[in-house]
Amino acid sequence: MKVLKKEKFPQIWQAINQAYELYLPIEKDDRVNFAQWTEGETVNLEALKTEISPKDVIFPQSETYLKFESDGKKLQLESVESENREYVLFGVRSCDAVSFNLIDNVFLREPIDRLYEKRRNKGTIVSLACSEPEENCFCSSFQIKPEEASPGVDVAAWDLGDKILWKPVTEKGQVLTQKFAQLMEDASQQDQEELIKLQNAIKEKVKELPLASVDPKVIKGELKEIFESKVWDELSQSCLGCGACTYICPTCHCYDIQDFAGGNCGERFRCWDSCMFSEFTLMAHGNPRTTQKQRFRQRFMHKLVYYPNNHGSYACVGCGRCIEKCPVNMNIVKVIKRLGGEG
Amino acid sequence: MEKIANKVRETARLALANGEVNKILGWKKGDFWYDSYPAFITEEEGTASLIWDSFCVANLSKYLIEQLKEDIKVGVFLKGCDARAFNQLLKDNRVDRDKVVIYGLPCPGMIDPEKVKKAGLAKGLLDVQKSEDEVVFITKEGEQKFSAREFAYDKCLTCQYPNPVVYDELLAEEVERNNTTEYFYQDVEEIEKMSPDERFAYWVEQFSKCIRCNACRNVCPACSCEKCIFDNSKANVAGKAKVDSEEQFFHIVRAYHVAGRCVDCGECSRVCPVGIPLAKLNRKIIKDITEFYGEHNAGVNPSLDAPLETFKLEDIDPFETRAKGGK
To answer: What residues are paired with B103 via a beta bridge?
Structure first.
């Protein structure tokens, strides 16, 4: 275990940036989001959660992967390779770190999504424990422990005031640590004790959160029964059908494939898509989901029923972003409670 | 507001009980102090959960398009801006006035939870109450009082129509109209003062934040097309890519499409999850229309012709009289 003094932050950002692409929570116009670091940016590791989840770093919102050109007779295809630089994603909270594993379950099982795999393997993830969980956090409802290193991260970090405690947990994490070891010190006995104190404090805070009692297990019964519940009619009425929830969500991972077509040549790209949109699932024969109720139901059935059936865990990490951002205050907590018979 | 809330519940209960309407659109309270959300109620008992507080910001009038597809009569609670939105929907032939009973709510201005959060007051906050010009934040430790203006949405600070412009029944006394017209276009004037290059850079930067979620469009009462061109894959303009050109195209097309029909409710700015000040674009167009054709406030009086939908011989030629050059 190492210790990195906060006064060394500017130095370590510079150093990491020499060897990797570096992504950090960056403050701009009073808002904090993960972005690639460049000299002069305001890094904000105090803000608990970024406005949008960091999934964009491992799964870009838009990515071109093919160029095509036709001379009328012959079609030429050229694959577009993303640049081959490794990256460090620093300051990921436990909920978001777990979300990466949930997306992995989909894209890294056969047939493996090569684009995603390539980008994912290039990353080294440094998590940062949540010293101050917020009121709309409910990660504990999904057994996520914001005081610990989430499974899958390469380095776990904790904020101890004027320094962070740095614990490499994977080989990649070791490599990163060794590269910049000259900027760090070994953690002392006192640091270790402070860590335990901090972890205990976080555990207590999490227990006290207003949504601590949210439990997705209240959703019981057969899939068909849940699917046909009257609750969907009721809750979906307020849904505007925008994609704010899906695009800020750390676990939503649906995408569309489209072309930038320009006469006889063009580019093919994939981009995030939202099951809330009317043209989502539009196929040659038409669209199987024609109403907002069906689309709304799909999003929550996926997170709370289908995904758990397929992968053994819920596809929500309780980050609370949808609670904050839905224009009409509809969110997964309301859905869980209502499906569980409350209200 | 609690006194009026009682009236809201009672009005809704009676309307359902005597069969005046089949459904009520109002607001309910969720888990948090800021969590006032749209409620759709068909049973008399359900009306007990209705509320009226400083967070009933969601506009209920656009829901009527969908709700009235069923052959029912709907009772709806509308604030000043919501009522203007209703009138615009009426003018755009998207709702049937005869199938709606409007309960008007003079609006004292809504509280912006983001401002509360930024002021560091959100932590441990249990309830927020408003009385006259004061807002009271209640935590376990006690109460703190502030001026309500400090925490009002920007759009509420410049609101000229807090009282509903259309209603069947008004549930409270009208509130005083905000007369601070000198501030009305302050946000637009700040942009107008920029050089063309600065202005271009400003909007490129703002639009580059866009995540293409469509929240601005879907909340907008002037965006009421059956099928938006951006959702029509056959139209070949529906680029979902997160690239500057697509983002700019989307927002500029939208601003022009709602030109003259925008009721200045400011919902686009409010719902944008990444904080693009979209209403400034629409307000610039409102300002220009006012300067070219005289004051026109969309949704205030639906029987008036909208300047961009009519042509008069004496209309000015904006390009001739106002062309400023630049980019």
So the answer is: B77, B169
